[in-house]
Predict the structure.
Amino acid sequence: MTGSIIRRGRSSFRLKFEAGERDAVTGKRQTRYLTIRGTKKFAQAELIRQLSMVDNGTAVNPSKVTVAEHLRAWLDADTALSAKTKERYRQLAEQQIIPHLGGTLLQKLRPAHIQDWHGTLLKAGGKGGAPLSARTVGHAHRVLHTALARAANIEIVARNVASVVRPPKVEAREVQILTGRQIAEVLARLDGHTLRPVVIVAVGTGMRRGELCALRWSNVDLDGATIKVERSLEQTREGLRVKAPKSRYGRRTIGIPASVVEALRLHRLRQTEQRLALGEGRLSPDDLVFTTMPCGRPLSPDNLSRDWRRAVMALKLPLVMFHALRHSHASALIAAGIDVLTISRRLGHGTPAFTLTVYGHLFGDTDAAAARAIDATISNA
């Protein structure tokens, strides 16, 4: 079997290869064309994979591929997705998409099918026939949309029918935050608790759970009062995995306040004392800042949330998730009048626009301040 690759743009390649089947009239081998987006190396790998499937007889005529087959093949082959994201996508595919649309031929899928599917999920798509929330249906829709986009890119289907039908509208939810007084009360009640160091760093930096769990002492500069965020820890069914931050904007250096520096100095001292008592020697730069006690193993994000929930119930803390500490950090910065660009960079958001989408309701008093500023300008004219 032979094939060729033709560049069709900066990151697009057209694959041409013999499909193995012979035309019923002419007897000639049929030729297939696929458009691949990505690097040339990726296109070469895809051509080799396609030729291998033709050679060993596992290639499938695109017209006979079902939604279920395409979804599973896409999730198995996509290397761009993180392990945690792929795990969640597979869960949505197996539980919410395939039971309803899996047997439909990919090329026969129509917008009406998508619309009916939304209605079914909203009415009885959950466990035991319970209704699903519009948010969950939206997540499932995005998984299907992404899979169909790939099918359109490699020309299995002519268009992405999931683009025609919008997912159900989700009512915006205001983020959970702690007030300044509540933060002070939480830290006071956590005095002497093993969670206090990670909680005060979470509030003082706005770092995500995975970023906190992957933080090493080499990334903490106590004299310069900064923390470098360079990696994140995620939990999958296969275990813990260190990865790059959520996006390229996640790599950042965060200035930390004096209270956080003091808390980290004390935490480092106690961690060193504990290690020496256990005969493990002094801390090295590669050691993690936050670990399980007393064994010193990596602290998983899920266990961090579990420990937080237990502390909330035992110490009668405000009923918020651990992620609310990140939101509380952003809220405190907004209340102090810090500009949205600085806040966005501290949080590792891709753009200030995203920060405004999440926290826009907290900027409520800025319009009145803007009006007063304009009034002062006019009055001085």
Remarks:
- The mean pLDDT is 87.
